[in-house]
């Protein structure tokens, strides 16, 4: 076995340089700890930047808000609508990498790039002694007092013996659909939007109640010709795009995460390879389809593919508290709430390319603010059997909180988790995964690491209410106030709540949810 070529030491080792890991490193270093952030690639941001998912969804506060402001100040953020707050802004992913790096370095943390964690050495069955990394130098190791698993896949937790689960019980252990991001150039946005608008109006004039998109209908013909494997666009909203700042409308650049794979097992190397090959084939077919068939895409070019698999969920640790889908749907608040999720239930359907999402959950006795309108489930929604209970959906006027206990894995005492590998049920995992709450959990983990080390206790011995208090009083995270901006608009908007005819989510009549 190869010898350890170098030993490093620090107070806190953060493994994984995605947005959650960056927030954890920044928060801990700013509070005076010696922090090292390990990243297996050569740039920061994880899927947000390297995976071409540069859209900040969720409640934007704390270090996440600082990140958005720095992007905005650099002219690298694209705001949606004429409002004085951030709502799903997109950003230039290359600048996102650089700004995150600058924030980490400026905080006083150290970055070790090109370092993939391959092993964990335990001091005893409950304590990590050190993590081992493969680098060009050979194997190196870091000994730390506290470790933070920000790998997304719970790699450190798994190697240290933390119990976990993968996939959804109601989907026989399958994970959510995966989608490798990609970057495109040469779109004439006004031409495409005008063509979609005209096609929609034509259908309305003919008495169609819910018009389908032009792009989807053109895909139908292409599929029938044997030139496209399956649909890429949404049947009703068209080809999904996130626009990149500073590119002209008639020659625009955008990213998309629309090339899906289903029946995924996201800890299986062969299955992940199958997904990527499938998505690459679909990209090639779709580029030719766009050029030849869709107005506005005549000069389209594929200019980048994500450097990471577009995995939405894999290992989810068993923690001191497992965030439940019921918590998300019912707007549960916690005494130790350290981050917030005000969005629709974000479960990308594991098996159905037609439905794409399952944005409801089944409960026998829903409580809190849950929306209990019964919309009806097609057989395709629940291919392994429909769960008992009634349909419930998150109320667009409310939000749920993520408790500090969800960051505390069982069994290992000097480990915290952040982002999508935190403790959550399958359908609740979206509350950890998207950029806003991922950075929120990271921010909280960095603060908790500092509190634990300065008090000489384990992270699980901290009172989560005190972590929340420090976030509010010292870190300027307004957890004691309702979500602001877009969420305040929804909270105060008139109109009845209904289930959207397309999308399976609860919405307010006459109000844009996204």
Indicate the topology:
Blueprint lengths: L3 E12 L3 H12 L4 E4 L24 H11 L3 E2 L11 E2 L1 H15 L2 E3 L3 E9 L2 E9 L2 E12 L5 H5 L4 E3 L11 E2 L2 E6 L1 H17 L8 H11 L17 E2 L8 E5 L3 E2 L7 H25 L7 E5 L9 E3 L7 H6 L6 E5 L5 E2 L8 E2 L2 E3 L26 E3 L7 E4 L11 E3 L12 H4 L1 H21 L8 H10 L12 H7 L4 E3 L6 E3 L6
Parallel strand pairs: 1-2, 1-8, 2-5, 8-23
Antiparallel strand pairs: 3-4, 6-7, 7-8, 9-16, 10-14, 11-13, 11-15, 12-13, 17-22, 18-19, 20-21, 24-25
Helix pairs in contact: 1-3, 1-10, 10-11
Structural class: alpha+beta
pLDDT < 50 runs, ≥5 residues:
none
Average pLDDT works out at 96
Characterize the overall form: globular
Oligomer: single chain
Q: What's the main sheet like? A: 7 strands, mixed
- Give the number of DSSP strands: 25
**What's the structural domain tally?**
3
Tell me the CATH topology of the largest domain: FAD/NAD(P)-binding domain
* Helical content band: 25-40%
Distance between the termini: 52 Å
Strand proportion, as a percent range, falls in 15-25%
Rg, nearest Å: 23 Å
Helix tally equals 12
Can you tell me about this structure?
It is a single chain. This protein has 3 domains: 4-165 and 406-473, FAD/NAD(P)-binding domain; 178-305, no CATH class; 324-401 and 482-508, no CATH class. It has 514 residues and is α+β, with helices and mostly antiparallel strands. Helix content is 28%, strand content 21%. The mean pLDDT is 96. It is built from 12 helices and 25 strands. Helix 1 packs parallel to helix 3 (93-107), helix 1 (19-30) packs parallel to helix 10 and helix 10 (435-455) packs across helix 11. The strands form 9 sheets. Strands 1, 2, 5, 6, 7, 8 and 23 form a 7-stranded mixed β-sheet that branches. Strands 12-13-11-15 form a 4-stranded antiparallel β-sheet, with no helix packed on it. Strands 3-4 form a two-stranded antiparallel ribbon.
């Amino acid at each position: 076995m190869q010898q350890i070529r170098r030993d490093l030491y620090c107070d806190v080792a953060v493994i994984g340089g995605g947005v959650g890991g960056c927030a954890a490193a920044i928060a801990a270093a700013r509070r005076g700890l010696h922090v090292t952030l390990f990243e297996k690639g050569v740039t920061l941001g994880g899927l947000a930047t390297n995976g071409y998912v540069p859209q900040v969804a969720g409640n934007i506060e704390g270090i996440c808000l600082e990140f958005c402001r720095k992007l905005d100040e650099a002219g690298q953020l694209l705001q949606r609508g004429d409002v004085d707050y951030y709502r799903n802004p997109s950003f230039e992913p290359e600048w996102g990498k650089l700004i995150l790096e600058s924030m980490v370095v400026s905080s006083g943390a150290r970055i070790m790039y090109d370092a993939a964690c391959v092993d964990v050495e335990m001091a005893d069955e409950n304590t990590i002694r050190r993590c081992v990394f493969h680098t060009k130098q050979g194997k190196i190791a870091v000994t730390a007092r506290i470790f933070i698993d920000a790998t997304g896949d719970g790699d450190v937790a798994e190697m240290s013996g933390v119990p976990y689960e993968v996939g959804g019980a109601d989907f026989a252990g399958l994970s959510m659909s995966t989608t490798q991001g990609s970057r495109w150039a040469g779109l004439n946005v006004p031409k495409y939007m005008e063509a979609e608008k005209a096609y929609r109006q034509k259908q309305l004039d003919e008495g169609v109640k819910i018009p389908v998109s032009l792009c989807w209908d053109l895909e139908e013909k292409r599929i029938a010709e044997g030139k496209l494997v399956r649909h890429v666009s949404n049947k009703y909203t068209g080809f999904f795009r996130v626009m990149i700042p500073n590119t002209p409308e008639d020659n625009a650049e955008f990213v998309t995460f629309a090339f899906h794979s289903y029946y995924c097992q996201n800890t299986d190397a062969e299955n992940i390879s199958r997904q990527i090959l499938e998505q690459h084939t679909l990209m090639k077919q779709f580029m030719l389809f766009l050029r030849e068939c869709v107005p506005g895409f005549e000069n389209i070019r594929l200019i980048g593919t994500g450097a990471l698999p577009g995995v939405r969920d894999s290992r989810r640790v068993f923690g001191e508290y497992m965030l439940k889908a019921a918590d998300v749907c019912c707007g549960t608040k916690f005494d130790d709430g350290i981050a917030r999720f005000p969005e629709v239930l974000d479960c990308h359907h594991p098996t159905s390319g037609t439905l794409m999402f399952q944005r409801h959950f089944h409960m026998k006795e829903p409580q809190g603010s849950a929306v209990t309108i019964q919309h009806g489930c097609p057989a395709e929604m629940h291919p392994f059997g429909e769960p008992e209970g009634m349909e419930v959906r998150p109320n667009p006027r409310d939000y749920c909180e993520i408790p500090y206990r969800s960051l505390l894995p069982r069994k290992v005492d000097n480990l915290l988790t952040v982002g999508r590998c935190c403790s959550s049920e399958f359908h609740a995992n979206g509350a950890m995964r998207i950029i806003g709450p991922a950075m929120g959990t990271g921010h909280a983990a960095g603060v908790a690491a500092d509190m634990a080390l300065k008090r000489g206790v384990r992270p699980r011995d901290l009172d989560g209410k005190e972590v929340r208090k420090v976030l509010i009083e010292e870190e300027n995270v307004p957890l004691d106030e309702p979500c602001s901006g877009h969420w305040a608009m929804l909270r105060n908007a008139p109109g009845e709540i209904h289930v959207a005819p397309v999308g399976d989510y609860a919405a307010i009549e006459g109000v844009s949810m996204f």
